[in-house]
Request: fold
Amino acid sequence: MNRLFIAILMAFYLFGCNQKASRENHDHGNENDHNTEMHEQNSEYEHDHENEAEHDDHDHSSDEHDHNSEDLSAHNHDEHSHESDDEHDHENETADGVVNYKITEVHTHPFYDILHVSGRIMPSQKGQSMVSARHGGLVVFDNDRLIEGQKVRKGQKLFLISAKGLTHNNLETKFAEVKNTYEKTLQDYQRAQKLLANQIISQSEYQDKLVEYENMKSRFENIKRNYVKGGQPVYASSDGFIANLYVKEGEYVEIGAPLAAIVEDKRLVIKAEVPQDMISQLSYITSASFSPSYSQKVYFTDSLAGQLLSVGRSAGNSVYTPVFFEINYQPELLPGAFADVYLHGKTLKNALTIPKSALLEELNRYYVYKFEHGDFEKQYVNIAGTDGKEVRINSGLKVGDRVATNEVFRIRLTKMSGAMPAHAHNHAH
Reply:
């Protein structure tokens, strides 16, 4: 009986424990489910934030991309604008396409009676030296680019006089002959010294050998000094530039033949050729301006330490009378080049002048664009000469008038098209 009672108690005890474990497992399961739910919510929350972050990053990247695109576009636009400006050479055009026309007010200035003649840039005779061949032979240029106007230095090798292939007047053969003769006269002289000491020959015979030896020695040393195997080198005699080349490569020259003229780079000469109908005005000439044929730049003799050298008194067989000015050397002025020369004659105290850049020509008539009432109007003028930079006006303008002095051809094209010139940015001077 007791055993039965104990068994029943044990059964109730075990049943109670199972119920408790079941409840605890249920609670833990709920807790796990709750944790899982919280984890899923957190994951969703974190995922949303990650998406937002990624979206923000994407937006920022897009912004950066857009900014970069804008910068690149602007940069490319600027580059295109600069390239376009360079191509069209709109030096006076602003970023908005408006041209900055320069407006100059007309005044009177001291000026000259101008004689416009043709002329030439020449090397000065001062400091000019000649390079000559010291032996006959074929001329070989040391430099393939040896040309007139090239700058050279004293001692620079210019030519080689070669006797290669020549059957006569061969420098190497001549050098060998002179050397042999010199060595023979040296031996004869040394022998004569011994014979004279032993009184075998007379004093006069000894003197003959001495003179013969000294003459041959001088000749040998001279040819030896200029001799190089393969040919005779010819060097520049001074610093300067080559004014003239008198030979071509491969040409045969005799001894003493001129090869080149070298002029020191210190002074130049401007030669003006005056027609006979202007000769009566030459007594007033004191200075000049000129423009080389290859350039639009105008030079003034007064600003280049220029001086009037001479005025030809006789035209000789020529229909022109030469007038010479000497000026300081300028590297960009090429000796031998032609030039427009403007001789400055009688002084005019109150000449009405405008810049030459303001002038246009139409059917042998000159005109300018006068600026008045906010617009440009064509105005014909009569001119009385130019120094290459300024133009003297005889009629058509008066003191106080304002004229365009740049982009005048553009104004002409604009007026021809019927449009108004964009003159929003005018600059009066």
